[in-house]
Specification:
This protein is mostly helical. The protein has helices at residues 2-17, 35-51, 56-72, 81-96, 103-109, 116-129, 139-151, 165-179, 189-198, 203-210, 214-232, 259-271. It folds into two domains: 22-130, Cyclin A, domain 1, CATH 1.10.472.10; 139-271, Cyclin-like (Cyclin A, domain 1, Orthogonal Bundle), CATH 1.10.472. The protein contains twelve helices and no strands.
């Protein structure tokens, strides 16, 4: 039945996830890198994804590779961040896309700041330090599973992509915005995904569908409140039209919106929300 199958999928994903660790503390190893620099880099990677009509999952893989690679390094200089970021996206696209961008296209989007040789050298370093562990369950893969379970709890096929599109676009925007904050890395990816769902579906239902108890989800839901408020001020996200892509696949393409402006209003709200923890000021 649906629930037994979904439990099996979730257990497989969770077991798989134990091999992949992320932490918001990695910036302590990089005194020259401020949290806002990570936000700006990830925002730029989202723009590159939209420009090349890459899938959402490609961005989320790149984000995961970047954060985990930074955990393995120390004292990275800020002028190398863009090289690490575009290299992580280059690897992610090769993992996820049927037609990944060419190396020269990656050089082009850095305005020729780096050469093809730079990216190839960095690619070897990233692959080595990630130990070729390139298939994490991302916050997006968890959200897709939970959203399907929630939408399909009437008994239709678990893995059919029958989510209400409008909801899905608002949810992916909120998840994107949250991932631009380093403090998102305080939470497990599945908890982030479940918490996003709580802003669109009754929390009791989310707890039932995800199998995550309230005491696990609640701290993340509370942390996420200013992000949800900021995103909602920008009106509804609508499906963009991508030339050459079938419209029913449009929701799987990574889209960019004014995330950095949204993040500014999140930081302002944070000032008025005592108890919201922060590793360092992100502004």
């Amino acid at each position: 039945g649906l629930w037994r199958d979904s439990d099996q999928v979730r257990l497989q994903m969770f077991g798989h996830d134990l091999n992949y660790k992320h932490s918001a503390n990695f910036l302590k190893k990089h005194p020259n890198v401020a949290p806002a620099m990570r936000s700006i880099l990830l925002n730029w990677l989202i723009e590159v994804c939209e420009a090349y009509t890459l899938h959402r999952q490609t961005f989320y893989l790149a984000q995961d590779y970047f954060d985990r690679f930074m955990m393995t390094q120390s004292n990275v200089q800020k002028d190398v961040l863009q090289l690490i970021g575009i290299t992580c996206l280059f690897i992610a696209a090769k993992m996820e896309e049927s037609h990944p961008p060419r190396l020269r296209q990656m050089v082009y989007v850095t305005a020729d700041t780096y050469s093809e040789k730079h990216i190839i050298q960095m690619e070897l370093a990233v692959l080595k330090h990630l130990r070729w562990q390139l298939t994490p369950e991302t916050p997006l893969s968890w959200m897709n599973l939970f959203f399907q379970l929630s939408a399909n709890s009437n008994g239709s096929d678990l893995l059919e992509r029958q989510f209400p599109l409008d909801f899905y676009l608002q949810m992916t925007r909120l998840l994107d915005l949250c991932m631009l904050s380093i403090n998102a890395l305080d939470f497990r990816y599945e908890v982030l995904a479940a918490s996003v769902l709580c802003y669109f579906v009754p929390q009791e239902r989310v707890e039932a569908v995800t199998g995550l108890p309230k005491h696990v989800i609640q701290p993340c839901v509370t942390w996420m409140a200013p992000f949800a408020q900021s995103a909602s001020r920008f009106g509804k996200e609508t499906l963009k039209d991508f030339a050459g892509k079938k419209i029913e696949d449009g929701h799987t393409i990574q889209t960019h919106t004014d995330y950095l402006t949204m993040l500014v209003s999140v930081r302002r709200a944070d000032v008025w929300m005592p108890g919201c923890h922060s590793h360092r000021s992100e502004s």
